[in-house]
């Protein structure tokens, strides 16, 4: 739901507009027969469209868990995305794919590489491996706390445990970033997200030492958001009691809005589906109650049931 329209609008206002790399090509006619071609083509097109609408900074969010991860990274770099944000797993291969793309194309691309982490330990492990294997260090870190929307990098028990709150995690990631700055010879900003909704939330997170914030759910109901009006209206109509935690088919907990679809899934009413393509490495189609990719695409189109 964050494609060229929303990303370009955010970028034009001075933020970093982020295009979602996950399932970018699901609406392409050959999504089933050529998933790599469909997704890379769609991502390239969305970046070009966004670039035609703004002179601002444009990023792409590419999940490590995607089976098309390497192809999507190469496409984002070749399409001159300013930044690649990468989470849903540890993006250990991200700098190597970036350097290989530069070498193959004989061009020094300037795309910044930013891992998304849920702990200081993850940030330290990623930086150590990147440095050992490629000599590169992250250009920044995004720390996502347990109040984020969508899939969460925490166990179900930790989501509501205050010791795992964004406020308690941020100082550790900032310490890791500061320790790396001497080696990098530059600053390594920490961007924090997950439950950042208002101006006062932004101020609170910046006061904790973050250099910036990541916001997503806040923009769902905007005119520029690339989702159907029924999707947006569901958010507008929702109360706090409508927000729930689901057990996602991809093996992670996720935050979602309660609705008929979720109720039926919990009741064990399996949604018959044929796996269009194995989009997420951790998904087991044979034992999944429904296809999360298809459910998300349907919701984005306004088919919430």
What's the quick description here?
It contains 10 helices and 10 strands. The chain is an alpha/beta fold and 305 residues long. α1 (4-12) runs parallel beside α2.
Radius of gyration: 19 Å
Low-confidence stretches: none
Secondary structure category: alpha/beta
Task: Going across the biggest sheet, name each strand in turn.
Answer: 1-2-3-4-5-7-8
- What's the rounded overall pLDDT mean? 92
The largest sheet is: 7 strands, parallel
Shape: globular
Quaternary structure type: single chain
Count the DSSP helices: 10
Number of strands: 10
Please indicate the percent range of residues in DSSP E strands (runs of 2 or more): 5-15%
Fraction of helical residues? 25-40%
Order of H and E elements: HEHEHEHEHEEHEHEHEEHH
* Terminal-residue CA separation: 17 Å
Structure in words:
The protein is of the alpha/beta class. 39% of the residues lie in helices and 14% in strands. It has helices at 4-12, 35-53, 69-78, 94-105, 120-134, 166-184, 199-207, 229-237, 260-266, 292-300, and strands spanning 16-20, 57-61, 83-86, 112-117, 141-144, 150-151, 190-193, 212-214, 243-247, 253-257. The strands form 2 sheets. The chain has a 7-stranded parallel sheet. It has a 3-stranded antiparallel sheet with strand order 6-10-9, with no helix packed on it. Helix 2 (35-53) links the parallel strand 1 and strand 2 (57-61). Helix 1 runs parallel beside helix 2, helix 2 runs parallel beside helix 3 (69-78) and helix 5 (120-134) runs parallel beside helix 6 (166-184). The radius of gyration is 19 Å and the shape is globular. The mean pLDDT is 92.
